[in-house]
Amino acid sequence: MSAAGSPNPEYVVARVRARRGSLFGDEEYRKLTRMGPAEIARFMEESSYGAEINALGSRHGGVDLIEYALNRNLAEQFDAILDWSEGSLYDLIARYLRKFDAWNVKTIIRGVYTDAEQEAVEVDLIRAGEFDDRRIRRLLEADSIDGVIEVLEDTIYGEPLREAYAEFEETGVLVPLENAVDRAFYERLLSGLGVDEPTRQYEAFLKAEVDFRNATNALRLARSGADIDPAAYFIEGGDLFTRSSLARLAQNIDELVEYIGDSQYGDELGPALRELEEADSLIAFEHAIDAALLAYGDRLGTIHPVSVTPVISYILAKERETENIRAIARGKEAGLSPDEIESELVIT
Questions:
Q1: Which of 48, 80, 194, 347 lies 20 to 30 Å (CA to CA) from residue 319?
Q2: Helices assigned H by DSSP within the chain
Q3: Fold entry, domain 192-306
Q4: Where exactly are the structural domains of the chain?
Q5: Where is average pLDDT lowest: 86-90, 197-201, 209-213, 240-244?
C-alpha cells in the first residue's frame, strides 16, 4: 500500500479481473428477488460474502446482517486493491475511492437532518475511502450539521460546506450541502491527472461521470419546478454542459432531453431518454445512466487493458452489485413483489 515506487497495473489488473468473475450476474439477481432476507443471507454465505456473513451473523440478522456484510465486503475489497497498488496507480485509485468519503458525509448529514438513530446511519456507511475510524466516529457523534462541518474543517469538504451552510439555513433543504460535497470531490478527482494516453482515456471517463451527474441534477430540477438556480448546482469538469447552458436547459425538460439525445452520449442514453419522455420515469433514467457509465468504463478497459481504467470499471461494478443486493433486501422487507424489486435494479 504505497504511493511510492513504479506503477504496477499488470499485477493489479490481473487480480481485479479474477475478482470480477465472482460478481453476481442477472440470473443471481432474479433468484434473490424471490427469496426472503434469511434466504438471501444464506445465498450470500455460499458466495464471496461468506466471511462477512459468518463474522457478523452472531450480532445481526435479517436485512441488517445483509447491509453490514455488503458494506464490510466492499471496504475490504477496495482496501485490498490499494494494498496491491504502487506509485501513480495507487494515487489514481485512492482519489477515486474518496467518493465513499463523500457518500459518508452526505449520509451523516442526512441522518442529523432527519434526527435518525446513530445505528441506523452507521449501517449505511461505506468505509472504503480515506477517513479513518476515529473521524467516522466523530462524525457519527456530531449532534448538528454545524458539528459535522466542524469535524470536516481540515478536509476538502470543510470550506465548501461552511460556504453552503448559509443557504441551507435560509432554505431548510439539504441540496446546497450535498452539492457542495459533490463539487469538492470532483474538483479534487480531476486535478493533476497524468498526460499519457491511458490516463487521458481515464479522464474522459471521469468527465462522462461529471456530465451524467450534471444531467441528472438538471432533470431533477426541471421536474421539481422549484425556484432554484440550476447554475448554483453545476459541477465543473465535464464536457456536456456549461454553467449557463445547464441553467437554461433545466428550465425546459423537453429541450434538455433533446440536448442530451443529440450529444456524444445519445447512443448510450437514447433508450432511457425515450422512456423518460414516454413514462416520465426519472428513476429509470438514473438507472440507465448508471448502466451507461458501467458500459463506458468496460469499453475503455478493453482499449487500454493494462491501465487504471479496468480497475475503476471493477470498482463501479462491485459498487453496483452491492447496491443491487441492498435494493433487493430492502424491497423484500418492504413487501415489494419480485417485478417491483427488479425494476429498481441496475442490470447491464
A1: 194
A2: 9-20, 26-32, 37-45, 50-56, 62-84, 87-97, 99-114, 118-122, 133-141, 145-151, 158-171, 175-189, 197-224, 243-249, 253-261, 266-279, 282-303, 308-333, 338-342
A3: V-type ATP synthase subunit C fold (1.20.1690)
A4: 192-306
A5: 197-201
